[in-house]
Write a structure and sequence with these properties.
The protein is of the alpha/beta class. The chain is 44% helix and 9% strand. The protein has two domains: 103 residues, Glutaredoxin, CATH 3.40.30; 112 residues, Glutathione S-transferase Yfyf (Class Pi), Chain A, domain 2 (Up-down Bundle), CATH 1.20.1050.10. Strands 1, 2, 3, 4, 5 and 6 form a six-stranded mixed β-sheet that branches. Helix 1 packs parallel to helix 3 and helix 1 packs across helix 7. The C terminus is likely disordered. Its EC number is 2.5.1.18. It comes from Cydia pomonella.
């Protein structure tokens, strides 16, 4: 299998009739859609993109040139993880990932929106540590506190229910990356199990979810990618094991 990221000048791989997701292996937004595809047990191909040298044909699927983009029919695509994932959940309802109650669906979206501050703080801490301010640590801590409280209020194993849903697959990719922060010199951003016991249990539970296990990368792997990117030499292909460019994801041995 391959995790080679295609770049400018590389040809578009042949279309095989399946759903096809254009992604970047270390992109949390693309990971959201991978997790939903996995959770729904859908057959799909992955095409990884070098975001520093984008293939010209990527813009045919997303004029913004960003990932993820989902090719749902040959030459036809939608983009943005929130749009893609809602489409997948409605198009393939056999494994529903959203609450049936409209209010709970709205509350899930509100929670995701409020958790964005923690996402932003992670990016500053990881990729621009010189710009990190006390306000970033405050926003990060507030996000973890909000998640801790939400898990307590809902009283379920996952935010969705006792099975993970769209809200969980939406916030998980960033939580997965949060664990790399101590390895990047941010010991004060480690997730303290005594302070956040429910968050800690939630993290461990999510790691055991089949849809997550197929695509999960360790904190060490995420830290290595961040370090390569901050040095100006993003190592997109650090996980590549063959010359095949389209693949089904699998769990990596770290």
């Amino acid at each position: 299998m391959s995790e080679k990221h295609l770049k400018a000048g590389d040809p578009l791989p042949p279309y095989n009739g399946k759903l096809r997701l254009f992604a970047m292996r270390f992109c949390p937004y693309a990971e959201r859609s991978v997790l939903v595809l996995n959770a729904k047990n859908l057959q799909y191909d992955l095409v990884f993109i070098n975001l520093d040298s984008k293939p010209e044909w990527l813009f045919e699927f997303n004029p913004k040139g960003s990932v993820p983009a989902l090719e749902y029919e040959q030459g036809k695509a939608i983009f943005d993880s929130a749009i893609i994932n809602t489409y997948l959940d409605e198009k393939y309802p056999e494994v529903p990932l959203q609450a049936t109650d409209p209010l709970r669906r709205a509350q899930d979206k509100v929670f995701v929106e409020l958790f964005l501050g923690a996402h932003s703080s992670f990016y500053v801490a990881a990729f621009n540590p010189d710009g990190f301010q006390p306000s970033h640590l405050e926003a990060y801590s507030k996000g973890l506190e909000r998640l801790e409280k939400e898990l307590e209020v809902r009283g379920t194993k996952f935010l969705h229910s006792n099975e993970p849903g769209l809200v969980d697959y939406t916030i998980w990719p960033h939580l997965e990356r949060f664990e790399s922060l101590p390895l990047l010199g941010k010991a004060d951003m480690a997730i303290d199990g005594t302070k956040y016991p429910r968050v800690t249990s939630y993290l461990e539970a999510m790691k055991q979810v089949p849809a997550v296990k197929q695509y999960y990368l360790s904190a060490e792997t995420h830290a290595k990618f961040v370090e390569s990117k901050t040095k100006g030499e993003a190592n997109y292909n650090m996980l590549d094991t063959s010359d095949v460019c389209c693949m089904r994801p699998r769990k990596k041995k770290q």
